[in-house]
Amino acid sequence: MSGADIARLKADFEAVAAIGVDPQGGWSRPAYGEAECTAHDWFANAAREAGLSVRQDAFGNSIARLEGSADLPALAIGSHLDTVTCGGLYDGALGVLAGLEVARRIARSGEARARPLEIIAFRDEEGRFGAFTGSRAMAGQLPQDAFASMRAADGAVLGEAMEAAGFKTERADAARRDMAQIACWLELHIEQGPVLEATGEPIGVVTAIAGQERLSIRFSGSAGHAGTTPMHLRRDAFAAAARFADRFRDMILVEGENSARGTIGIVRVTPNQGNVIPSQVSLGLEIRDISAPLLAHLAGRARALAQQTGEEMSVDVSCRTSYAAPPVPMDARLVAALDGAAREVLGRPAPHMPSGANHDAGILGALVPAAMLFVPCDGGLSHVPQEHTDWPPIADAVAVMERTARRLLASTELTQC
Ligand SMILES: [Zn+2]
Q1: Mean pLDDT, range 393-400, rounded to an integer
Q2: 171 CA from centroid of ligand 1 (Å)
Q3: Neighbouring residues of the ion ligand 1, judged by CB less than 5 Å
């Protein structure tokens, strides 16, 4: 990347960094809020200046486009411009700005393109009103009645927030796109974890986006006086849940093949009083892995462990799956294309890695060939104001995206599977 290219990309980051600055620290650009809308307007202007045509779909996703010489499906690159509350500068914005920079260079080069290039900035990836709402709307996975029922934690209703931002919910179905128009999807994102930084690698090629299964497990025992009830006569729901939690972690470590993640993130104790034996504990746990069979195995083992622990502790156990999403493998041809470009840019292979977090690439990747590149972030930190990635890995990653994009744009071969 030349000095001028880096200076332009830095200027883009400075422009986006001025949008949605939160007095509490970091950036807050919630979906359909003023700041997210301003960021989309900024993107549209910058893309038009680069020679792209720009439209917002009925859901508010921004689509910037460079036409190709043939009527082929487009190569699409992008990410999102919303943030969590008091989030960082790089999550999402990096992928959009990298796509914009790639498009600028390709537009400037005057090279013939067999297919169109699109840079897409999605709305509401962070899930103010759900999760991946913008890409799901484009993928046709958002039912019309969702607009009235999907609510933010602050009580805002998706449909009302959209109307306030100037989008007509009765038209929002029109955001649904014929996925045959998109040949493939590429997304650059910060890793949001510590693996690349720990290995000193500037780029990771993502092989798959982990699937997940969330279980709600309830341990039901008997309340009693904490001072008078002998230990051997108790049906202590928390003691059972705690024993299960310890076993669950060990089970993931032993049977998770070094790739699975298991987390108990929700614990609700009833009655949650210091002098009363807990009568009920509800746990919310999730398991993630890129292998569907392993995910199913681990979820089954977690259920069995909960039942076994309940029997040992004389506590009743109920268990249900509250959410399940299958893993999304990245497209092997695109992974190879990114891999080849990374070897040219770095002079050596880039590591391959799974993505434990889901992304817009996980929504689109279930429907069209997709692939992702990761760059490290300091301390693995994301969704916080301190989120930071150094310029050298960003420059390398943009160079890899550009090389890959040029090849895909020149090829008429890549059609949808
Ligand atoms: Zn993101």
Answers
A1: 97
A2: 26
A3: 91-92
Q: pLDDT tens digits for 179-204?
A: 999 999 999 999 999 999 999 999 99
Amino acid at 35: A
Q: How far apart are CA 297 and CA 220, in angstroms?
A: 25
In angstroms, the Cα distances linking 381 to 107, 384, 389 are 34, 7, 10
Structure tokens at 191: 């890793």
Model pTM score:
0.91
Give the closest residue to 6 by CA, choosing from 401, 402, 392, 375. 392
**For residue 83, how far is its CA from the centre of ligand 1 (angstroms)?**
8
- Tokens 């299958």, residue located: 326
- d(CA 208, ligand 1 centre) in Å: 16
The answer to whether 352 and 205 are in contact (CB under 8 A) is: yes
**Nearby residues of 406 by Cβ (< 8 Å), 6 or more positions away:** 106, 111
The pLDDT tens digits for 31-64 are 999 999 999 999 999 999 999 999 999 999 999 9
CA of 132 to the centre of ligand 1 (A): 9
Ligand 1 center from residue 126 Cα (angstroms): 7
Query: Helix, strand, or coil here: 176?
Result: coil
Domains of the chain by range and CATH? Answer: 3-209+327-410 (3.40.630.10), 211-325 (3.30.70.360)
Give the C-alpha separation, 141 to 323, whole Å.
16
| Ramachandran category for residue 24: left, alpha or beta (phi over 0 → left; psi -120 to 50 → alpha) | alpha
**Could you tell me the distance, in angstroms and rounded to a whole number, from the CA of residue 79 to the centre of ligand 1?**
7
Distance 54 CA to ligand 1 centre (A): 22
Contact 314, 235 (CB under 8 A): yes
Predicted local confidence at residue 416, as pLDDT = 44
For the stretch 55-79, pLDDT in tens is: 999 999 999 999 998 889 999 999 9
Q: How far is the CA of 125 from the centre of ligand 1 (A)?
A: 7
For ligand 1, the distance from its centroid to the CA atom of residue 114, given in whole angstroms, is 30
* Dist. CA 124 → ligand 1 center (Å): 10
DSSP letter string, 250-271? HHHHHHSTTT-EEEEEEEEEES
- How far is the centre of ligand 1, averaged over its atoms, from the C-alpha of 288 (Å)? 18
